[in-house]
TrEMBL record:
Keywords: Hydrolase
PANTHER family found in the cross-reference section: DEAMINATED GLUTATHIONE AMIDASE (PTHR23088:SF27), NITRILASE-RELATED (PTHR23088)
Pfam families noted in UniProt: CN_hydrolase
Coiled-coil features, chain-numbered ranges: none
Record organism: Streptomyces fragilis
Protein name: Carbon-nitrogen family hydrolase
Family, per entry: Belongs to the carbon-nitrogen hydrolase superfamily. NIT1/NIT2 family.
GO MF annotation list: hydrolase activity
Positions of the CN hydrolase domain: 1-239
Domain of life assignment: Bacteria
Length: 267
């Protein structure tokens, strides 16, 4: 399976409309990939809190239209990162969008853990409440976003729901880059999943971004890692390695605390 992580540069020198058009072009250039991933809040920037309200859009707004067309034109599964969504009641959410190769919206995930410690995203946006997985022909995706990466119970829930590949778009700051790669590897090892974590480059709202998008296998080995600048990180991986790893080292069956253990195979 081939994935392309689009580590876009996000900064205030480029308009939202221009960045939306550029993202669409980048997606179309990935024709031949199976899965394409964009970062978190790439239209506005994850730390550009003052822009969330101005650029919030309905679930099927202009970004949806652009990403649906791009996925269809490229013939790829597209995780289009996340947008500031304005719900019907006016509440803002940090919402990820996933498209099938037909261009149909296959899933939407509202970020559960909001960053900011009683300011920024934490007070400007509502919290999602649903775990979301997406069935692809080759694997089952589990959806999470940025700060979610620090909460392992969410990922256990995704594994119990059948996830084999965890996709994490982010706008992670450079000053905590070490945590970004460490946590991506930890979530892969403890859940025996692939982790595809796609961040942003550039500086927005005065916050330099970490970049360093990363793909990790179920043993915690880094298959590919980007640098700090804008980059397309393309990687081939074998989804069958998830089942093989879990059979070779069946740690998940020994869970005793927290969420229910996965059922044991029939004798």
């Amino acid at each position: 399976m081939r994935a392309s992580l689009l580590q876009m540069r996000v900064d205030g020198s480029e308009s939202v409309e221009r960045r939306r058009a550029r993202a669409s072009a980048l997606v179309r250039e990935q024709a031949g990939a199976d899965l394409v991933v964009l970062p978190e809040l790439w239209t506005t920037g994850a730390f550009a809190f003052d822009d969330f309200d101005a650029w919030a859009e309905p679930l099927k707004g202009p970004t949806h239209e652009a990403m649906s067309e791009a996925a269809r034109d490229a013939g790829v599964w597209l995780h289009a990162g996340s947008i500031p969504e304005r719900a019907d009641d006016g509440t803002l959410f940090n919402t990820s969008l996933v498209y099938a190769p037909s261009g149909d919206l296959a899933a939407a995930y509202r970020k559960i853990h909001r960053f900011g410690f009683d300011k920024g995203e934490a007070v400007l946006m509502g919290a999602g409440g649903d775990l979301v997985t997406v069935e692809l022909p080759e694997t089952t995706l589990g959806l999470a976003t940025c700060y979610d990466l620090r909460f392992p119970e969410l990922f256990r829930g995704l594994v119990d729901a059948g996830a084999q590949t965890l996709v994490v778009p982010a706008g992670w700051p450079e000053r905590r880059r070490a945590h970004w790669t460490l946590l991506a590897r930890a979530r892969a090892v403890e859940n025996q999943c692939f982790v595809l974590a796609c961040g942003t480059a550039g500086t927005h709202a005065g916050v330099p971004q970490a970049g360093h998008s990363i793909v990790v296998d179920p043993w915690g080995e880094v298959l590919a890692e980007a640098g700090a600048e804008e980059e397309v990180l393309a990687v081939e991986f074998d989804p069958a390695r998830v089942a093989a790893t879990r059979e070779q080292f069946p740690a998940l069956k020994d869970r005793l605390l927290g969420l229910p253990k996965p059922p044991r195979p029939a004798a």
